[in-house]
Amino acid sequence: MLRYTISRLLGAIPTILVIITLAFLLLHAAPGGPFDSQKKIPPEIKASIERKYHLDEPLHKQYLRYLVGILQGDFGPSYQYRGTTVNDIIKQGFPIDIIIGAAALLGALLIGLPIGIISALRRDSAWDHGSMAFSMIGISIPVFVIAPLFILIFAIKFHWLPAGGWDKGSWREALLPAAALSAPYIAYVARLMRGSMVEVLNSQFILMARAKGIPQHLIILRHALKPALMPLVSFLGPAIAGVITGSIVIETIFALPGIGRSFVDAALNRDYTLVLGVTILYGVLIVLFNLLADLTYSVLDPRVRY
Question: CA-to-CA distance for 102 and 108, rounded, in angstroms?
């Protein structure tokens, strides 16, 4: 497994390099620049600014300079937020995204897994049809509808939780954003778990365990749960990266200072370095969590060997 892990990590280097290259070329190919604005800048001042940030150099030199900076752990200065580096922006916003994303993912697993398992055990029952119907509703309703609804109910009507903001970083400030972000993931987890569990419960080895007189709860815990988790693990690989990097909708509605809003603002203002920094971060997270999902297969299913 160690050899497989090392080979996957080495194989991820070309993938990340392609991501960096494509993002770099597409950003520079877009019309406009980081210092273009409605107010006309004198040519000599604009030339001085571009010379300071090496934007007057040929494109290939800018690309090589940026790659060298990445290897040194430096994503460069932000063109939009003067006097601030991309590293500072990521360090400031990424912990908030981790807290919200981890809470949302934990809630999705704690709620979605039991719903899916019970639905599989009570197949074609009222619980099964009702829970799967609510799951479809959770998938269909967008987050920008769920989030204001939560604010209206829990913040405005009952005054149980704050409507937004991130002053102290307490659990009260994180609960509503995490709940809104986790709602569609609860639905996905429940439906995936239900379908996978139904398939596993109809397998030959489960029928053999029942024939031996093993109690139902032991069959579920010892024999059915691990193989039923396999499709869910495949889903959770990119899903974890998605919830951790946050949602621009959630950050906007709840006024959270995460990197999602900074990323969109940077894209609109041609803040090349900030867009590239967040893109690289997102790509690395997807690669790492997909690798972690692949390694988890061997734990869940002893037949999987690398």
Answer: 10
| 282 falls within a domain | no
- What is the total count of domains within the chain? 1
Instruction: Identify the CA nearest to 155 among candidates 180, 135, 137.
Output: 180
pLDDT at position 50 is: 76
pLDDT in tens, 12-22: 888 889 988 99
Is residue 218 included in any domain, yes or no? yes
CA-to-CA dists, residue 262 to 33, 66, 164, angstroms: 17, 20, 17
So what's the pLDDT on residue 306?
56
Mention every residue, 6+ apart, whose C-beta is less than 8 A from residue 31: none
Kindly indicate the confidence band of residue 111, based on its pLDDT and cuts at 50, 70 and 90: very high
Whether residue 306 lies inside any domain: the answer is no
Q: For residue 28, what are the CA distances in angstroms to 4, 62, 63, 273? A: 37, 10, 10, 11
Q: Is 6 part of a structural domain of the chain?
A: no
The CATH code of the domain that includes 165 is 1.10.3720.10
pLDDT of residue 196: 92
Length of the chain equals: 306
pTM: 0.82
Amino acid at 2: L
Q: Note down the domain range covering 153.
A: 94-260
SS (H, E, C) 153-184: HHHHHCCCCCCCCCCCCCHHHHHHHHHHHHHH
